[in-house]
Amino acid sequence: MTQRACCPYCGERVSDKAVRLWDGRRYCRSCIKSVSPELYEFARNGGQLVDVVKASDVRSLLYLINFGKLLLVFTFLFCFLFWGLLTLIGVGKEEDPISPWTLFAFFGGGGLILVLLKSLILKIIKHFHLPRILKFKKGELIVRYGKKQKRFPLEKCKWYVGTTTLCDLICLYTGLRQGIVFQTPDGFFSCGHSPETLKHWYAFLRLMRMPRLPVPRSVFYIPYGSLGMVVGTLVGFGLGHIVAMMTGQERWIPGCLLLGAFEGGLIASMYVYYSHYACQNAYQRFQPAIWGLLFFIMGATTGFIGGNPAALFTGSLNGMIGAVVAWYLLAQRSELSSEEKEKELRQGELKEVLGHEH
User: Fold this and answer.
1) Residue where a domain stops, chosen among 77, 96, 127
2) Which of 59, 174, 184, 252 could form a disulfide with 244 if both were Cys (CB 3.0 to 4.6 A apart)?
3) Nearest partner of 180 among 171, 189, 142, judged by Cα
4) Residue-wise over 342-358: b if at least 16 C-beta within 10 A, else e?
């Protein structure tokens, strides 16, 4: 005799009147109605949970505004903080040819031009991969880019409701700021471009009990980032004094101080991200070589205080630090992923044992 399946929401045996939903499983009608009567009517009428990003939704101007303002804020703080530190030790004088506004205009303006070019190039590329479609089908989250398609088992996906702009690159082009964000082994994907179905997505995720992530709030980044900046500032201040005493150049003090503060905050933020929100294959986007190159550039920029040889030495040493930090964080993430896989395996074995008992 064939055993009846259990409702994923209440755990009870389902009746013949159960409703099969988009994950391929059958749910009690009463459970669906208790979570969302609108979802029940939507499913009964043959509705489909689909989120679509059309080519007409993508605009380069939105990317320039969303990414450009972050660039300008960072450039403004960097230029004026660096100039202020130079002024404190008497290096920044009125007769100096470079002012903070000159630095801001050069780096900020140049950065905006690069962002604009990048937005235009990416828009052309993305038009070949649109529309992008997100949907559930037979126990999988399906992401389709044009003719290409990716499938993710629902048991390997998590979700949260929150800001989408910094998680899904396409949202920088579409302007979507809030929605449902799915974490998959291949990255983050946002849902909310089809607002008429967004409430049904939310209700269905609650009904199927997909694991929910904590919302990435600044409350996690502020304490860690502040602590990292304090530690980095102290280390940079100490190293700057040592190098200044050895070379007789006081410019090393504010340079190392600023470098230490910035990198301390960056490393702390990386730790929070990898510990709470990184995907299983985060190494594909954040390889140690990339972080090593980024840290090399920052170190070499500071090292120009002492000339080209000092820039090369400082950049190389700083690049090694960045690569080691990224490698360590990825190693920690790999250990967490192994523990998660082992936990899933144990849960699967437990379900199999319980199934045989029934």
Assistant:
1) 127
2) 252
3) 189
4) eeeeeeeeeeeeeeeee
Q: Read off the pTM.
A: 0.61
> Where is the domain boundary, 83, 104, 127?
127
Give a yes or no: residue 3 inside a domain: no
Q: Are residue 202 and residue 341 in the same domain, yes or no?
A: no
Domain containing residue 322: 218-346
Tens of pLDDT, residue by residue over 52-101, are 888 777 777 777 777 777 777 777 776 766 666 556 545 545 455 456 67
Check if the beta carbon of residue 32 is closer than 8 Å to that of residue 207: yes
**Residue 140 predicted with pLDDT over 50:** yes
Tens-place pLDDT, residues 214-241: 766 555 666 777 788 888 888 988 998 8
The per-residue b/e assignment along 62-91, b for 16 or more CB within 10 angstroms, e otherwise, is bbbebbbeebbeebbebbebbbebbeeeeb
